[in-house]
Amino acid sequence: MSDMDAVLAPPSTRMSGIDPAIIPPLVIIGAMTGLVLVLEQVVPLRWNLSVYRLIWPAGFFWALAAYYSVIRSEPKIREIGLYLGLWLFFPVFAAKLSYIATCMGLPLRDSVFATADAAMGFQWIEWVHFIGRYPTIMPLQNFAYDSSFWQPLLTVPILAFWGPRSRNGELLTAILLALLATIAIYTLLPTLGPADFFGMKAQTGAVIQALRSGAEGPFAYFGIVAFPSFHTAMALLYTIAHRGNRFTLLPILVLNIGMLTAVPYQGDHYLSDMIAGAIIALLSFVVARALYRRLDAARP
């Protein structure tokens, strides 16, 4: 086939080596990255690390994927490299987007969510004191809470080797949809979180207040969305991704139940945040599942 023939070939022929499952998360991450790059021209913030120092691991995994696509054909290793690269890439720009959203400076809504929690019979202070009476629990909760960062490194290979086809794409798409929804809602309904509202300072609250006062940094890269709770959304979506796997579902379920119980104690979230995060997770999963059913049905 000549070069011109390759250009004129139907898309299904030219892109036969591209797994359609990767396209939805690629499109979402590309759009989010482009949006951040544009908004940074309007809301200039400074960071304690260059973005290039944070995204090079993504480049390493993409190079690995390229090697096992072009040099040696190993579809499962290629899938692992592609998805781990995306998982390491998008959080940098997601964090930036949450900081830019905070700079909108809309009125804080902590009193609304504290009142909602009280109406449901949940008192954040009492929960903190309850956990504090059992110091052996706190390391376990911290471990479960921090697992949100490394669970994808474990889940991506599991889904690549033993999961149904397209499950990695479905999971990442659902996570990205939940992420964008939480940032959008947080922009309109910002909060500091219960720790600051009840006079017990937290790192996230300090960053939010600095951004709202016009500070430009330098800032560290970590998410600062309070309402809805993205940690809650991640815990549910990580667990759902392992459905059907009789070896991994139970331990992942236990780990993510631990993450859910740890969310209030961290001081960034009301119970209302968690309920909203759970709703967003389920809606994001429904949308992603419907999309991937269509993609799977269109495969030869």
Descriptive notes:
- With 300 residues, the chain is an all-alpha fold.
- It is 71% helix and 0% strand.
Overview in brief:
By secondary structure, this protein is mainly alpha-helical.
Features:
300 residues, 14 helices, globular, disordered N terminus, mainly alpha
- Tell me the total number of β-strands: 0
Give the N-terminus to C-terminus distance in angstroms. Answer: 23 Å
How is the main sheet built? Answer: none
As residue ranges, the low-confidence spans are: 1-16
What is the percentage of strand-forming residues?
under 5%
Series of secondary-structure elements, N-terminal to C-terminal: HHHHHHHHHHHHHH
Instruction: Give the mean pLDDT.
Output: 87
Task: Report the principal-axis shape.
Answer: globular
Q: State the helicity in percent bands.
A: over 70%
Structural class: mainly alpha
- Determine Rg (CA atoms, Å): 21 Å
Question: Can you count the helices?
Answer: 14
